[in-house]
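testing teh design pipeline on a random one, pls ignore if ur not involved
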Protein backbone atom coordinates (compact mmCIF):
# COMPACT_ATOMS: atom_id res chain seq x y z
CA UNK A 1 0.00 0.00 0.00
CA UNK A 2 1.44 3.40 -0.92
CA UNK A 3 1.82 6.22 1.58
CA UNK A 4 -0.79 8.30 -0.27
CA UNK A 5 -3.40 5.55 -0.10
CA UNK A 6 -2.59 4.98 3.58
CA UNK A 7 -2.97 8.72 4.25
CA UNK A 8 -6.37 8.75 2.53
CA UNK A 9 -7.73 6.27 5.05
CA UNK A 10 -6.64 8.47 7.97
CA UNK A 11 -8.65 11.55 6.91
CA UNK A 12 -11.33 10.84 9.52
CA UNK A 13 -11.95 14.18 11.20
CA UNK A 14 -14.39 16.68 9.75
CA UNK A 15 -12.97 20.23 9.85
CA UNK A 16 -14.23 23.60 8.67
CA UNK A 17 -11.77 25.83 6.87
CA UNK A 18 -12.29 29.60 6.85
CA UNK A 19 -10.47 32.33 4.93
CA UNK A 20 -9.87 35.96 5.90
CA UNK A 21 -12.50 38.44 4.77
CA UNK A 22 -12.37 42.21 5.13
CA UNK A 23 -15.55 44.23 5.65
CA UNK A 24 -15.81 48.04 5.57
CA UNK A 25 -16.12 49.51 9.06
CA UNK A 26 -17.90 52.70 7.94
CA UNK A 27 -14.97 54.95 8.82
CA UNK A 28 -12.82 54.30 5.78
CA UNK A 29 -11.10 51.26 7.27
CA UNK A 30 -11.82 47.57 7.34
CA UNK A 31 -12.64 44.99 9.96
CA UNK A 32 -10.90 41.65 9.57
CA UNK A 33 -13.16 38.66 9.87
CA UNK A 34 -13.45 35.18 8.44
CA UNK A 35 -15.85 33.54 6.01
CA UNK A 36 -16.44 29.82 5.38
CA UNK A 37 -14.29 28.32 2.62
CA UNK A 38 -15.08 24.61 2.83
CA UNK A 39 -15.68 21.60 5.03
CA UNK A 40 -13.15 18.81 4.55
CA UNK A 41 -12.06 15.53 6.04
CA UNK A 42 -8.65 15.72 7.65
CA UNK A 43 -6.06 14.01 9.77
CA UNK A 44 -5.25 16.11 12.86
CA UNK A 45 -2.01 15.37 14.71
CA UNK A 46 -0.59 17.24 17.71
CA UNK A 47 3.07 18.18 17.27
CA UNK A 48 4.15 20.26 20.27
CA UNK A 49 3.02 22.56 23.05
CA UNK A 50 4.92 25.37 24.74
CA UNK A 51 4.23 28.33 26.98
CA UNK A 52 3.97 31.70 25.24
CA UNK A 53 3.78 35.28 26.39
CA UNK A 54 1.22 37.47 24.62
CA UNK A 55 1.35 40.93 26.13
CA UNK A 56 1.22 40.28 29.86
CA UNK A 57 -0.74 37.05 29.56
CA UNK A 58 0.86 33.63 29.76
CA UNK A 59 -0.69 31.15 27.33
CA UNK A 60 -0.06 27.79 25.75
CA UNK A 61 0.76 27.54 22.04
CA UNK A 62 -0.06 24.17 20.52
CA UNK A 63 1.17 23.18 17.08
CA UNK A 64 -0.83 20.68 15.04
CA UNK A 65 -0.39 19.14 11.60
CA UNK A 66 -3.65 18.98 9.64
CA UNK A 67 -3.58 16.89 6.44
CA UNK A 68 -6.31 17.41 3.82
CA UNK A 69 -6.86 16.58 0.16
CA UNK A 70 -5.10 19.22 -1.94
CA UNK A 71 -7.27 22.22 -2.78
CA UNK A 72 -4.86 24.97 -3.75
CA UNK A 73 -6.90 27.75 -2.11
CA UNK A 74 -5.85 27.25 1.53
CA UNK A 75 -2.96 29.45 2.66
CA UNK A 76 -1.38 30.98 5.72
CA UNK A 77 -3.85 33.33 7.38
CA UNK A 78 -6.75 30.92 6.99
CA UNK A 79 -8.05 29.05 10.00
CA UNK A 80 -9.31 25.57 10.79
CA UNK A 81 -12.19 24.82 13.16
CA UNK A 82 -12.16 21.32 14.67
CA UNK A 83 -14.30 20.10 17.56
CA UNK A 84 -14.97 23.68 18.68
CA UNK A 85 -11.27 24.55 18.67
CA UNK A 86 -9.78 27.20 16.39
CA UNK A 87 -6.37 26.84 14.73
CA UNK A 88 -4.51 29.52 12.78
CA UNK A 89 -2.89 28.17 9.60
CA UNK A 90 0.78 29.17 9.66
CA UNK A 91 1.92 27.41 6.47
CA UNK A 92 0.78 24.99 3.77
CA UNK A 93 2.92 22.49 1.84
CA UNK A 94 2.38 19.53 -0.45
CA UNK A 95 2.52 16.25 1.43
CA UNK A 96 3.28 13.92 -1.48
CA UNK A 97 5.03 14.08 -4.86
CA UNK A 98 1.75 13.86 -6.76
CA UNK A 99 0.16 16.91 -5.13
CA UNK A 100 -2.85 15.00 -3.83
CA UNK A 101 -2.55 16.05 -0.18
CA UNK A 102 -1.67 19.27 1.62
CA UNK A 103 -0.20 19.55 5.08
CA UNK A 104 -1.23 22.58 7.15
CA UNK A 105 0.95 23.64 10.07
CA UNK A 106 -1.54 25.13 12.53
CA UNK A 107 -1.30 26.85 15.88
CA UNK A 108 -3.89 26.89 18.63
CA UNK A 109 -3.49 29.50 21.35
CA UNK A 110 -5.17 29.02 24.71
CA UNK A 111 -4.97 31.49 27.54
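output:
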Amino acid sequence: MTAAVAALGTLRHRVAIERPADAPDGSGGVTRGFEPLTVAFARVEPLSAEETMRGYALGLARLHRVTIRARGDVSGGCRVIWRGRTFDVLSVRERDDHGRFEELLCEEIRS
